[in-house]
Amino acid sequence: MSSNFPPSSIRPILNEITSLLTSRNETISVAETLSNTSQNKAAGGIISASLLSVPGASKFYRGGLTLYTLESRIQFAGWTEENVKNYDGPTKDVVSGLAKNVRERLGSTYCLAESGTAGPAASGKSLNRTPDFVALAVATEGGVLSVEETTGMGGDREKNMVEFARLGLILLKRAILERDEGSKM
Fold first, then answer.
1. I need a surface site. Which of 99, 138, 147, 169 has the fewest CB within 10 A?
2. How far apart are CA 42 and CA 161, in angstroms?
3. Is 34:41 a contact under the CB 8 Å cutoff?
4. Which residues pair with 30 in a beta bridge?
């Protein structure tokens, strides 16, 4: 791995995840968002790029989507016009739906989906429209595990994007381990 990429804060969890996936012969797909508004920039491909930076990624990486517009979510992520019309920012429901749809379409063991507001400014007044907010979900055959988080990094877009990716990988590890324990998500 290059000394610059993936970001150093992601490397430890990335190594754990890729070892788990490889040793278990399991696969991952990813659905990341990147809104076409200047405020709503989520991980925007960092999760997929980090996974793909690992030699042998073809053994565990099934594919990914970086969804830029709400319309692209109709085309590739199973959204309807009604979803677009009622969209009010990233939520657990939004990412859970993305994760389920993309996992099914790509036939992966897991799908990690994320959507957030990285900054630098808010795109609304609710918490999910403020910089440093992210919604994350991991779908498996047995269900979906989802969370909403804030990074505490305010409007620092780059730091938030990297932290969104790190938090997503942490959630993925949790889903893998909970699947081992047979817990219902």
1. 147
2. 6
3. yes
4. 64, 112
Positive or negative torsion for Cα 88, 89, 90, 95: positive
Q: What is the pTM of this model?
A: 0.90
> Which positions ≥6 away from 86 have C-beta within 8 Å?
none
| Tokens coding 168 | 């997503």
**Contact, 104 vs 76, CB < 8 A?**
no
Burial (CB < 10 A; 0-12, 13-18, 19+), residue 113, is buried
Collect the ranges in the chain with pLDDT lower than 50. Answer: 36, 38-39
Q: Show the tokens assigned to 97.
A: 């739906």
Query: Using an 8 Å Cβ cutoff, are 155 and 119 in contact?
Result: yes
pLDDT at residue 184, as a whole number: 57
Nearest-5° angle of CA 31, CA 35, CA 40? 110
